[in-house]
Automatic annotation (TrEMBL):
This is Alpha,alpha-trehalose-phosphate synthase [UDP-forming]. Belongs to the glycosyltransferase 20 family. Its EC number is 2.4.1.15. GO terms for molecular function: alpha,alpha-trehalose-phosphate synthase (UDP-forming) activity. PANTHER family: BCDNA.GH08860, TREHALOSE-6-PHOSPHATE SYNTHASE. Keywords: Glycosyltransferase, Transferase. It is an enzyme of class 2 (transferase). Transmembrane segments: none annotated. Residues 237-260 are annotated as: Disordered. Pfam families: Glyco_transf_20. One of its GO terms (biological process) is trehalose biosynthetic process.
Length: 521
């Protein structure tokens, strides 16, 4: 942390005594969840999310700050230190939750970026709210960033932050990582504010995507909308004299004035694979896995689906295929059990309400048609579970079904591979999930093709042990060698030249200097 307020950079929003940081993360969610006990006392605990684990070493080494929404509409939470990370809660009003979070983020951008699986809604008031909230996040980042600091902005909720921040603080290095897909231009171009969003993103020095195809789609959007030169992974952005993005007067392919170089490429996110494997080796977790199998009556095949209850996940397609296999007698109810964990998500958004109704109706029908008194076809669990229970479920599952219709990465696929140190288990993986680019030895499927999905599930059920083992070994190798530490390092490596050219701290060097860093090299 640095407390020397960056001279000459004060704005009307600054508190002169505000601490300053060399590393600032800006994400819609904080890395901690607020828990209120029975007596109404609130405390904080680490969120289970992958991003928190991913950034933990960098946060620890740099004593960085994290700006995010604490959830809900409580607006009097003071910033605080949490295990060496400065937590800066960004309150949202009830109207902003409705318009910025549920509205523009999750009912406009989310469906649009996932190839319009559900129809996106376009409302001008939602866009206004998105702009206002992004402005506030950017202002807070400008207050907290030390001179020459690095600010890493995350995900589709905050795409305008890099552009606004660049205007306020040309001295900082800005990274942006998009955790969800970036759609093809033919889809993206529906967005009434398509140019503003692209300009917002181009405020960053490095823009990261999950798949090479996402980065390609973004570059095409830049070329189509702004005519900037984009070749390989770099985009040349015309700027004014102090490096700010110009508003359009020099949108030519070969600008004659000053320019900035922006890198746009893919950095597939991952998990803390070793931590998953270690947990899987714990005797108590293995006992729990055995208990799960026995509670289900030790069927020959246990299949597992683990998803946020979201229409992008293809849960309906999976249930349809499973129901048909039972109806056709290709699967026998006494031999098989499907566990579907569907964790509650965005429950006030209409599309999510409808999805829940449809899924629960389908589960009820399948259980009614095929279940017996002692055995139901599907164990449907509308809860989130702690990591340990998830690991036990992965150990218990012979087959994991990831049938997403579109997914930025899908970490469930990687978690399953990390857990199965016994080199057993079959992963059925949608080719529309980012993980399919890396886990090529999964059984890849097109989830829209129900017959193909059924055949693939049967292939998984019947796969001989030797083949299961060969495939799982290859997937595990990939996941163990490309874990989340590799991900965050490769992103920081891309930021290094920008940090050095601005006289800022090379964060990769800071992280690599810590003891034990070589373990992850
Ligand atoms: C996806 C998004 C994240 C988001 C998460 C949970 O993984 O990429 O940005 O935080 O879903 O969704 P929620 O709306 O509850 O934050």
């Amino acid at each position: 942390m640095s407390v020397d307020a960056a001279e000459g950079l004060m704005t009307e929003h600054d508190h002169p005594d505000h601490p300053r940081f060399d590393f600032v993360v800006v994400a819609n969610r904080l890395p901690v969840d607020r828990v209120v006990d029975g007596d109404g006392n609130a405390s904080w605990r680490t969120s289970p999310g992958g991003l928190v684990t991913a950034l933990e070493p960098v946060m620890r080494e740099t004593e960085g700050a994290w700006i995010g929404w604490p959830g809900g509409t409580v607006n009097d939470i003071e910033p605080f230190d949490y295990n060496g990370t400065w937590i800066e809660p960004m309150p949202l009003s009830a109207q902003e939750v409705e318009e910025y979070y549920e509205g523009f983020s999750n009912d406009t951008l989310w469906p649009l970026y996932h190839d319009v699986i559900a129809p996106p809604s376009y409302h001008r008031e939602w866009w206004d709210s998105y702009r206002t909230v992004n402005q506030r996040f950017a202002e807070r980042a400008a207050q907290l960033a030390a001179h020459g600091a690095t600010v890493w902005v995350h995900d589709y909720q905050l795409q305008l932050v890099p552009g606004i921040l660049r205007e306020m603080r040309p001295d900082v290095t800005i990274g942006f990582f998009n955790h969800i897909p970036f759609p093809a231009y033919g889809i993206y171009s529906q967005l009434p504010w398509r140019t503003q969003i692209i300009r917002g993103l181009l405020g960053a020095d490095v823009i990261g995507f999950q798949r090479a195809a996402d980065a390609g789609n973004f570059q095409r959007a830049v070329r189509r909308l702004l005519s900037y030169e984009a070749s390989g992974t770099t985009i040349t952005v015309p700027t004014d004299e102090d490096g700010k993005v110009t508003s359009g007067s020099r949108n030519t392919k070969r600008p004659s004035g000053p320019t900035r170089t922006v890198v746009a490429r893919h950095y597939p996110i991952s998990i803390d694979a070793l931590a998953y494997e270690r947990l899987a080796r714990e005797p108590r977790v293995q006992e729990r896995a055995a208990q799960i199998r026995s509670e289900l009556g030790n069927p020959r095949t246990i299949m597992l689906g683990v998803d946020r209850l979201d229409y992008t996940k293809g849960i309906r397609h999976r249930l349809k295929a499973y129901g048909e296999l039972l109806a056709e007698g290709r699967l026998q109810i006494e031999d098989v059990s499907l566990i579907q964990v569907a964790s509650p998500s965005r429950e006030r958004v209409e599309t999510y309400k409808q999805l829940r109704d449809e899924i629960e109706l389908t589960v009820g029908r399948i259980n009614g048609d095929f279940g017996t008194i002692g055995h139901s076809a599907i164990s449907y669990l509308h809860h989130g579970y702690p990591r340990e229970e998830m690991v036990a479920l992965f150990l218990a599952a012979d087959i994991v079904l990831v049938t997403a219709l579109r997914d930025g990465m899908n970490l469930v696929a990687k978690e399953y591979a990390a857990v199965r140190y016994d080199n057993d288990g079959v992963l059925v993986l949608s080719e529309f999930a980012g993980a399919a680019d890396e886990l090529k030895r999964a059984l890849l499927v097109n989830p829209h093709d129900i017959e193909g999905l059924k055949d693939t599930i049967m292939t998984a059920v019947e796969m001989p042990r030797a083949e299961r083992s060969r495939r799982m070994r290859a997937m595990r190798k990939r996941v163990m060698e490309h874990d989340v530490a590799v991900w965050s390092r490769s992103f920081l490596r891309e930021l290094s030249p920008y940090q050095l050219s601005r006289g800022g701290t090379d964060l990769l060097a800071v992280v690599e200097a810590r003891p034990g860093a070589a373990d992850h090299a």
